[in-house]
């Protein structure tokens, strides 16, 4: 039945009765129960609740009013995955803290360490929750200090209070039915109502939560037999009985009375419990999860919900395992979405730990996931192959003992990260100090965790492959490292960070002993013995050892606990067992870097580098190293050293090791052994986490290798703790040790981000090469740091030497007395023997590198320094070939002699012989110096900067100073060597040093010298090429001398410039012999046409130029806006000309605006023959037809290729001709006057003829190809019939195209000059206007003889070569475009006119420009008499013409300008002067008085063009005929007649041209966060879906979506393609809102450029990985605009992608 019919009360009556108490509530409840719960019509029920809950108002009105009473302390806004939120480490208490964008913006986080991030699993806003974040981070609307509204009026909420419990009951029924039937429609409809109520604020949330947690209400609901049938109680019972059972781990519940397994309690006691059950069984549907989470701001409900969630936690964990076989599952992310909101609060964690077995629940679920219970084991006996545990590869098994088990990292539970939600929750609760202390102090908890870690101990074992290369490289290593970092290490750092200094010492020792016991148990399970261990098995995963290392480190440094209190110092065997696996891992790490494991593939190399990577090193590599250092403090030194050397396969000790390794591996492992021994004594592992001194050392090491971005520094400084809050100390230390290098721009616009450069003085004081090499997985990194150190030393003259500078190894500094005991290993006879062998090997074996020598010397130095000075010395001679030292005394061992062949050697003799080997040329001088200094009283040298001689001699000085017997032995050996050396010199003849006799270092130095010489030659060749390709490079880059560019242009300068006219024709100005980049032949060496490799692209940029209109101009043009584009303006004037001329072609002849939508033609500067290009294209595209069309259409519009030399993209061949390629029939150079020469060329017109047919064909193909590229985009007007002589409409279009193309090149260059700054001049490429000018001149079809006569007054016979018939009526000269006339005249004159002839043509056209602008001023302003003018021309005639035309009377509004008329005239002529000057500059390479970014002086440009200048500095008309007044009268007469006939059109044409500016980008916010929130989403009006993948066009300001949805793909594709037509010519510039990068979109391609937004460190944040505050970089914005205006993106974007390859998500290919 229908609910609205069943209840006789209206909503108004229901509300009134509840307010005044006239209704019996019990009876009313019964009535609602019967009429609501017995109703089967769900839609009717939904309508009922929407109608009756608001009472006497609509639902929207009700919700709006109820929100005004929201008194929630916590925001609690819930969001799903992929939503941007904020996390402030300064404000956070819990590491999982997050806040919504609105709360972030309403709070004050200035100066905080915060970031914006994309939520991976969803979340909720914690603003206002003092248990998760500090109160100073709250926004003004949340927390204790929030505004407190009044209490909710009873009359407003009474109906909702009554009906919400019934709504929840209906919702539960819908859940029961939908869970069985699978129909979730009804559930969603009811859930939508509940979400609306919950989102309206705290008042209704309280009503909902009270009903959900009311046990009595639920008991009545499920115990009423009358409605159980209607509510399908049988569905509930059936589903409940099928719930899986999860048991607690037995050891965790040891207090229970029986040994039986204890299950989790999943009983249903409230409506919340049942909703949670359905939520779990339906796999945590997103909408239902969001609804429950939206209620969490109610704290009492949050407690109840957490309790319920934990009771069903085991069921969720089992569902995770069950779904692990599926490809994808949403349960993990939704589980974390819930748990992170609950366990981040310390109050909640404390409550559920005491009341709900929080620790037991989570640990049991984790353990059961990896180790099923006994009952489950019985059920899974048949599935042994699917077990996650396997027999440990390191175990020695036998029949009696099955051996240890280890996790199979290739199991699907690991591969699919099924464990991640549970372990994430465990680490989350470990952020609470009370939880950590409870686990550590309760053995049953911590022992279970250690048992769990034992399952990962030694996982992913690698076995070395010999003889063949691995066929398949497994990827399991990725999962193994992820497990150790996210499970073991994360928990370890939580444990350690919560142990404060007041923690009881005995408890700390007990924890370490528990770890030791677990390691021993693991070793026993392996049946481990050092003798039978496989030395070619390698694992990087030893979590138990790392727990021991880190707890021991903190015990020593934080609690000052003696390691002897927890280490088995009296049991060497146990210590040896403890160090075996960490030592094997470190040795294996160096084996991999030495390429010994090469046949195992790349995956082992990646493991080794990951092991030492900054994110892992503190928890893995450094922990292992510290454990070795700690054990070295207590193990007998000789035993320790011998063990280490054996693990490093020291072939010097054991000849069998030499046979098992090839020579390269032997040397590499020898060096690795020395590095490890040095590091054991001198390297400080980063185990402290947040120690400032350690961080400083790390930063200096990072910066010593290379200049770094801030993010690179931050990423490479280990920060293992998940509880780390603010890493502000990095920034502080970075500012102390480095200088910031601001973002910069290089040649051609290449951008560099801000970097930090190490302060040079730190190389002298703090640079630690040992630390650098321990952090470097590539030897090149260490070498880079050493080269930078050497460069600094030489620059500061700190050490003068022609030999390589050695690394300045530092003297060790120890952070604690207990760890300083590691120096014991230096007093080891085994070590001394090893060092002796290393010295001997270097002196005898040329393959032993100098690196081995300086590590050996460093260890010798440390041994001497740490030795007892009073130790007696007895010099011994060992008659064995090479025996072992019998003493641990370094002084005695220095002098001990061994019999090697026919010689007796000691370390002293070897040191001197090595010195002789390196410095044989001046050896005698060196040993004399050493001998002299030995006799000095004190020869200490504390400097760590020197070469090999410096450090070798220091060893001798140090030994002699510390021990008398050493002093005597050294002097004796020196005297002995002196005699031998002098005798050898007398016997030997001078010989040339052979290459084979050179040391490795000398060979490297020679190679380096050769490399530098080669680079110098290449640089010289490049410089020569640039000089050839840019003859005007200096003038282009500088623009003008400083006197013309910076100071106002004086009259003296103008007159001086006017006298510098040249009679040199264009052809002889500069001639370049172009060379083909393929065959290397020049133009003169081949018959094939040659051309420049060029790029042509359509450009609409000129049409986007804009002008700001004043009120007068708006009225004259009838434009409602104060902004007008050039395209709109020229369209208006063109329409006026069409009205006057009555035909578009005549209008086009008078005003050629094809340059608005023309081709931008550029070149990389390299040339190629047409035949070579054809062959090149055939090689690229085997389709021969495409290559054969080159000579017919150079090139087709569809042909794209890359320059063979510089690899820049190209699509055309710009032909190159010179005066030798064509013949000139008439030569008028013998005529003295430039005007006469020009006039004769117009009277007897002739155009040069190309001498070769192939050249003629190529020229036609080139010009036709350019026109075809325009026509293909409908850029030319359609052909319409016109009665012209010889039907010349086609030629007319060609002529317009020629002039329009040339003008387009100049307009683009003019835009650059007007918009760029001086630095940006480097970004513009060489102009090829001169070449294009000649090509279009050769193909131009007309001679404008009638125009010449009309503008000069010189009689000229009209031939058929002219455009129009003499009887054709044309618009008056003063209404035409002067620049159009200028190009027409230039195309009519001879191809090679001199610069003074060019000046004459400009002066002739300037006359028109002058009087046209004078008419405009007279019409616009109230000027009546000639005395008002400050120049001498026939002004009266012009004034009279204006008066007779009566045009001024038609204009109702006039404006007054205070500037003199002459200045106004010059300003109006400025655009003409700019274009004319650019033409002259490009044709004749005369320095132009115009610098980019500065407005040129009209007087300077007029002088540059040699115009007629008056005494007061104004450019004036100059006539070249006998009757100039007659010419002007004819102009004015034609103007007057046209104005009288076409007054409306004339009013617009007579308006002075507004000042147009180059196009600009739309305004964008200065902070990226503001832009993100404005444009991060786009709602599609076609499918009503919202996309976050948005693109903002910086040209038009519109938003487009990057990834098209299937339902609206066609609509959005069409919209995007329309946008490309509008903005992508030449390129659309768009900002990818989600990534911050700039997208450059061409009509067929797209690519990514840099980001316009940088953080405070001058660094980009692509894809918002760091989420730092980003600020708009105005320099980058200016560079981007310059690249856009010059169409040079092709030289900046390296990777262009095609739209066709990615039809849907076409912007996903980020760099």
From TrEMBL:
<dbReference type="Pfam" id="PF02207">
    <property type="entry name" value="zf-UBR"/>
</dbReference>
<feature type="domain" description="UBR-type">
    <location>
        <begin position="73"/>
        <end position="144"/>
    </location>
</feature>
<keyword id="KW-0479">Metal-binding</keyword>
<keyword id="KW-0833">Ubl conjugation pathway</keyword>
<dbReference type="Pfam" id="PF22960">
    <property type="entry name" value="WHD_UBR1"/>
</dbReference>
<dbReference type="GO" id="GO:0005737">
    <property type="term" value="C:cytoplasm"/>
</dbReference>
<keyword id="KW-0863">Zinc-finger</keyword>
<comment type="similarity">
    <text>Belongs to the E3 ubiquitin-protein ligase UBR1-like family.</text>
</comment>
<dbReference type="GO" id="GO:0008270">
    <property type="term" value="F:zinc ion binding"/>
</dbReference>
<dbReference type="Pfam" id="PF18995">
    <property type="entry name" value="PRT6_C"/>
</dbReference>
<dbReference type="GO" id="GO:0071596">
    <property type="term" value="P:ubiquitin-dependent protein catabolic process via the N-end rule pathway"/>
</dbReference>
<feature type="region of interest" description="Disordered">
    <location>
        <begin position="985"/>
        <end position="1011"/>
    </location>
</feature>
<dbReference type="InterPro" id="IPR013083">
    <property type="entry name" value="Znf_RING/FYVE/PHD"/>
</dbReference>
<dbReference type="GO" id="GO:0016567">
    <property type="term" value="P:protein ubiquitination"/>
</dbReference>
<dbReference type="InterPro" id="IPR039164">
    <property type="entry name" value="UBR1-like"/>
</dbReference>
<comment type="function">
    <text>Ubiquitin ligase protein which is a component of the N-end rule pathway. Recognizes and binds to proteins bearing specific N-terminal residues that are destabilizing according to the N-end rule, leading to their ubiquitination and subsequent degradation.</text>
</comment>
<dbReference type="InterPro" id="IPR003126">
    <property type="entry name" value="Znf_UBR"/>
</dbReference>
<comment type="pathway">
    <text>Protein modification; protein ubiquitination.</text>
</comment>
<keyword id="KW-0862">Zinc</keyword>
<dbReference type="InterPro" id="IPR055194">
    <property type="entry name" value="UBR1-like_WH"/>
</dbReference>
<protein>
    <recommendedName>
        <fullName>E3 ubiquitin-protein ligase</fullName>
        <ecNumber>2.3.2.27</ecNumber>
    </recommendedName>
</protein>
<keyword id="KW-0808">Transferase</keyword>
<dbReference type="GO" id="GO:0000151">
    <property type="term" value="C:ubiquitin ligase complex"/>
</dbReference>
<dbReference type="InterPro" id="IPR044046">
    <property type="entry name" value="E3_ligase_UBR-like_C"/>
</dbReference>
<feature type="zinc finger region" description="UBR-type">
    <location>
        <begin position="73"/>
        <end position="144"/>
    </location>
</feature>
<dbReference type="GO" id="GO:0061630">
    <property type="term" value="F:ubiquitin protein ligase activity"/>
</dbReference>
<feature type="compositionally biased region" description="Polar residues">
    <location>
        <begin position="990"/>
        <end position="999"/>
    </location>
</feature>
């Amino acid at each position: 039945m229908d609910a609205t019919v069943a209840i006789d009360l209206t909503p108004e009556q229901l509300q009134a009765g509840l307010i005044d108490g006239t209704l019996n509530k019990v009876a009313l409840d019964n009535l609602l129960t019967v009429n609501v719960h017995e109703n089967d019509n769900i839609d009717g029920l939904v309508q009922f609740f929407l109608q009756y809950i608001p009472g006497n108002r609509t639902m929207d009105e009700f919700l709006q009013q109820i929100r005004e009473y929201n008194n929630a302390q916590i925001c609690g806004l819930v969001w799903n995955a992929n939503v941007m939120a904020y996390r402030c480490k300064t404000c956070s208490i819990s590491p999982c803290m997050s806040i919504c964008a609105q709360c972030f913006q309403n709070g004050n986080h200035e100066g905080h360490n915060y970031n914006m991030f994309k939520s991976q699993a969803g979340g909720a806003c914690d603003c206002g929750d003092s248990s998760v974040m500090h109160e100073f981070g709250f926004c003004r609307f949340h927390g204790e200090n929030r505004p407190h509204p009044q209490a909710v009026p009873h009359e407003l909420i009474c109906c909702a209070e009554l009906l919400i419990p019934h709504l929840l009951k209906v919702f539960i029924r819908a859940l029961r039915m939908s869970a069985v039937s699978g129909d979730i429609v009804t559930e969603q409809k009811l859930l939508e109502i509940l979400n609306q109520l919950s989102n309206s604020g705290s008042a209704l949330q309280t009503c909902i939560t009270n009903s959900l947690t009311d046990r009595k209400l639920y008991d009545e609901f499920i115990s009423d037999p009358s409605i159980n049938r209607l509510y399908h109680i049988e569905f509930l019972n059936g589903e409940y009985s099928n719930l899986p059972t999860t048991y607690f781990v037995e050891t965790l519940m040891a207090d229970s009375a029986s040994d039986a397994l204890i299950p989790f309690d999943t009983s249903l006691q409230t409506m919340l419990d049942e909703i949670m059950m359905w939520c779990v069984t339906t796999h945590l549907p997103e909408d239902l999860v969001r609804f429950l989470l939206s209620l969490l701001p109610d704290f009492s409900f949050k407690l109840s919900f957490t309790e319920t969630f934990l009771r069903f936690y085991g069921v969720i964990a089992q569902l995770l395992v069950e779904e692990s076989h599926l490809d994808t599952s949403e349960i993990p992310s939704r589980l974390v979405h819930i748990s992170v909101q609950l366990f981040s609060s310390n109050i909640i964690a404390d409550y559920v730990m005491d009341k709900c077995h929080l620790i037991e629940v989570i640990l049991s679920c984790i353990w059961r996931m990896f180790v099923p219970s006994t009952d489950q084991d019985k059920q899974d006996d048949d599935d042994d192959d699917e077990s996650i545990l396997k027999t440990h590869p390191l175990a020695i098994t036998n029949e009696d003992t099955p051996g240890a088990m280890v996790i199979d990292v290739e199991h699907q539970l690991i591969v699919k990260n099924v464990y991640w939600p549970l372990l994430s929750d465990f680490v989350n609760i470990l952020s609470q100090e009370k939880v950590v202390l409870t686990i550590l102090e309760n053995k049953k908890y911590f022992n279970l965790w250690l048992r769990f870690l034992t399952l990962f101990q030694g996982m992913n074992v690698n076995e070395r492959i010999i003889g063949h290369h691995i066929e398949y490289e497994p990827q399991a290593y990725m999962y193994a490292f992820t497990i150790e970092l996210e499970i073991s290490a994360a928990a370890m750092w939580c444990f350690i960070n919560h142990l404060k200094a007041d923690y009881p010492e005995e408890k700390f020792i007990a924890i370490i002993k528990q770890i030791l016991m677990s390691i021993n148990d693991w070793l026993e399970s392996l049946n481990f013995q050092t003798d039978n261990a496989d030395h070619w098995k390698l694992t990087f995963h030893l979590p138990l050892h790392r727990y021991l290392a880190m707890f021991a480190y903190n015990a020593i440094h934080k609690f000052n606990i003696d390691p002897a209190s927890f280490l088995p110092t009296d049991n060497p065997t146990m210590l040896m067992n403890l160090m075996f696996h960490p030592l094997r891992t470190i040795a294996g790490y160096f084996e991999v870097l030495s390429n010994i494991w090469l046949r195992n593939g790349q995956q082992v190399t990646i493991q080794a580098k990951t092991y030492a990577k900054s994110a892992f090193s503190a928890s893995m590599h450094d922990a292992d190293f510290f454990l070795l250092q700690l054990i070295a403090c207590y193990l007998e030194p000789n035993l320790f050293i011998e063990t280490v050397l054996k693990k490093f396969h020291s072939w010097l000790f054991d000849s069998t090791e030499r046979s098992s390794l090839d020579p390269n591996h032997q040397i590499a492992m020898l060096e690795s052994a020395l590095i490890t021994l040095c590091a054991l004594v001198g390297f400080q592992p980063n185990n402290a986490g947040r120690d400032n001194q350690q961080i400083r050392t790390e930063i200096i090491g990072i910066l010593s290798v290379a200049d770094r971005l801030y993010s690179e520094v931050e990423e490479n400084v280990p920060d293992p703790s998940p509880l780390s809050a603010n890493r502000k100390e990095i920034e502080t230390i970075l500012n102390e040790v480095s200088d910031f290098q601001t973002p910069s721009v290089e040649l051609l616009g290449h951008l560099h981000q801000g970097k930090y450069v190490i302060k040079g003085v730190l190389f002298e004081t703090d640079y630690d090469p040992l630390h650098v090499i321990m952090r470097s997985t590539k030897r090149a990194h260490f070498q880079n740091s050493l080269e930078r150190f050497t460069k600094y030393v030489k620059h500061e003259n700190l050490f003068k030497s022609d030999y390589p500078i050695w690394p300045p190894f530092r003297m060790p500094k120890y952070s604690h007395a207990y760890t300083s005991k590691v120096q014991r290993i230096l007093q080891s006879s085994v070590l001394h023997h090893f060092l002796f062998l290393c010295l001997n090997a270097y002196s005898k074996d040329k393959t032993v590198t100098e690196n081995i020598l300086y590590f050996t010397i460093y260890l010798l130095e440390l041994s001497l320094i740490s030795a007892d000075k009073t130790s007696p010395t007895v010099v011994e001679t060992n008659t064995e070939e090479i025996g072992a030292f019998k003493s641990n005394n370094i002084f005695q061992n220095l002098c001990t002699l061994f019999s090697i062949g026919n010689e007796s050697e000691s370390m002293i003799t070897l040191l001197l012989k090595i010195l002789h080997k390196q410095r044989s040329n001046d050896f005698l001088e060196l040993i004399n110096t050493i001998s002299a200094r030995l006799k000095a009283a004190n020869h200490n040298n504390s400097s760590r900067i020197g070469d090999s001689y410096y450090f070798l001699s220091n060893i001798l000085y140090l030994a002699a100073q510390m021990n008398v017997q050493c002093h005597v032995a050294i002097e004796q050996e020196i005297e002995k060597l002196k005699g031998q050396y002098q005798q050898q010199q007398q016997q030997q003849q001078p010989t040339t040093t052979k290459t084979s006799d050179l040391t490795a270092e000398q060979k490297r130095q020679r190679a380096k010298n050769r490399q530098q010489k080669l680079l110098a030659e290449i640089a010289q060749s490049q410089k020569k090429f640039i000089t050839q390709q840019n003859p005007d490079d200096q003038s282009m880059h500088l623009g003008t001398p400083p006197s013309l560019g910076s100071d106002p242009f004086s009259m003296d300068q103008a007159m001086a410039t006017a006298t510098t006219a040249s009679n040199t024709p264009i052809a002889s100005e500069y001639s370049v012999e172009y060379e083909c980049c393929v065959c290397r032949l020049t133009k003169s060496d081949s018959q094939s046409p040659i051309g420049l490799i060029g790029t042509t692209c359509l450009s609409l940029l000129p049409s986007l130029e804009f002008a700001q209109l004043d009120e007068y101009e708006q009225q004259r043009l009838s434009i409602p806006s104060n902004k007008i584009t050039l395209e709109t303006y020229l369209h208006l004037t063109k329409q006026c000309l069409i009205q006057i001329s009555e035909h578009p072609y005549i209008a086009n002849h008078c005003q050629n605006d094809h340059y608005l939508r023309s081709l931008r033609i550029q070149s990389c500067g390299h040339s190629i023959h047409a035949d070579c290009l054809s062959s090149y294209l055939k090689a690229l595209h085997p389709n021969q037809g495409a290559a054969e069309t080159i000579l017919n259409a150079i090139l087709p519009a569809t042909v794209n290729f890359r320059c063979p030399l510089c690899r820049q993209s190209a699509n055309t061949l710009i032909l190159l001709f010179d005066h030798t390629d064509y013949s000139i029939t008439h030569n008028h150079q013998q005529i003295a006057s430039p005007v006469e020469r020009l006039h004769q060329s117009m009277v007897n017109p002739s155009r040069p003829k190309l001498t070769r047919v192939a050249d003629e064909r190529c020229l036609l193909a080139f010009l036709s190809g350019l026109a075809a590229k325009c026509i293909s985009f409908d850029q030319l007007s359609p052909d319409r019939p016109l009665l012209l002589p010889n039907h010349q409409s086609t030629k007319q279009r060609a002529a317009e195209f020629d002039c329009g193309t040339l003008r387009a090149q100049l307009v683009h260059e003019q835009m650059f000059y007007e918009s760029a700054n001086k630095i940006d001049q480097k970004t513009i490429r060489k102009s090829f206007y001169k070449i294009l000018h000649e090509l279009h001149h050769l193909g131009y079809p007309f001679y404008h003889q009638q125009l010449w006569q009309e503008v000069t007054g010189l009689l000229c016979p009209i031939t058929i070569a002219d455009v129009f018939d003499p009887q054709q009526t044309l618009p008056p000269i003063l209404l035409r475009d002067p620049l159009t006339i200028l190009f027409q005249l230039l195309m009519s004159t001879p191809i090679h006119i001199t610069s003074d002839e060019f000046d004459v043509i400009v002066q002739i056209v300037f006359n028109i420009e002058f009087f046209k602008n004078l008419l405009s001023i007279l019409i616009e302003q109230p000027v009546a008499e000639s005395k008002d003018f400050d120049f001498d021309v026939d002004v009266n005639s012009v004034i009279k013409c204006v008066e007779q035309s009566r045009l001024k009377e038609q204009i109702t509004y006039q404006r007054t300008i205070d500037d003199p008329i002459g200045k106004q005239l010059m300003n109006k002529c400025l655009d003409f002067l700019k274009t004319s000057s650019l033409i002259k500059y490009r044709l004749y390479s005369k320095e132009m008085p115009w610098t980019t970014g500065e407005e040129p002086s009209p007087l300077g440009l007029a002088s540059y063009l040699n115009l007629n200048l008056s005494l007061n500095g104004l450019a004036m008309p100059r006539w070249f005929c006998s009757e100039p007044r007659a010419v002007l009268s004819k102009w004015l007469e034609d103007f007057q007649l046209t104005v009288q006939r076409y007054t409306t059109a004339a009013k617009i044409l007579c308006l002075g041209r507004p000042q147009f500016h180059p196009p600009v980008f739309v305004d964008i916010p200065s902070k990226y966060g503001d832009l993100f929130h404005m444009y991060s989403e786009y709602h599609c009006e076609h499918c009503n879906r919202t996309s976050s993948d948005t693109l903002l066009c910086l040209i038009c300001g519109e938003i487009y979506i990057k990834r098209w949805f299937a339902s609206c793909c066609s609509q959005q594709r069409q919209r995007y393609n329309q946008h490309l037509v509008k903005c992508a010519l030449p390129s659309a510039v768009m900002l990818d809102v989600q990534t911050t990068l700039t997208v450059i979109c061409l009509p067929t391609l797209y690519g990514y450029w840099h980001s316009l937004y940088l953080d405070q460190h001058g660094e980009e944040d692509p894809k918002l990985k760091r989420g730092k505050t980003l600020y708009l970089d105005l320099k980058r914005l200016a560079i981007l605009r310059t690249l856009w205006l010059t169409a040079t993106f092709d030289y900046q974007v390296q990777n262009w992608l095609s739209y066709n390859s990615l039809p849907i998500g076409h912007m996903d290919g980020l760099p």
